[in-house]
Amino acid sequence: MNDIEKRVILCFSNVFPGLSEDEIRRASTASLAAWDSVAHVTLLSSISEEFGHDFEMEDFEELVSFPLIVDRLENPTPNA
User: Fold this and answer.
1) How many domains does the chain have?
2) Which pLDDT score, from 0 to 100, does residue 76 have?
3) Residue 24 lies in a domain
4) CATH number, domain at 60?
5) Per-residue pLDDT reduced to its tens digit, 35-78
6) Residues near 46 by Cβ (< 8 Å), separated by ≥ 6?
7) Is 44 among the domain residues?
8) With contact defined as beta carbons under 8 Å apart, do 66 and 30 qualify?
9) Do residues 41 and 14 make contact, with C-beta atoms less than 8 angstroms apart?
10) Cα–Cα distance between 4 and 66 in angstroms, integer?
11) Domain range enclosing 15
């Protein structure tokens, strides 16, 4: 596990307490009932603060799972 994954897991833990690390790694909006629109904004805000990364509006629609979030942080898209 790399540093980005560890930090994202911490953010998930703060928003979704009680999930195991394995559950967090598999988490998506489709699989986690507690991941509603409010939790989504809270989670991405927490990640934004943790990484000093500003998300675009499109990101809120696209970043709907742990793997997608980690991938975006590891491979940021250049600003056009």
Assistant:
1) 1
2) 81
3) yes
4) 1.10.1200.10
5) 999 999 999 999 999 999 898 999 999 999 999 999 999 998 76
6) 11, 14, 15
7) yes
8) no
9) no
10) 11
11) 3-74
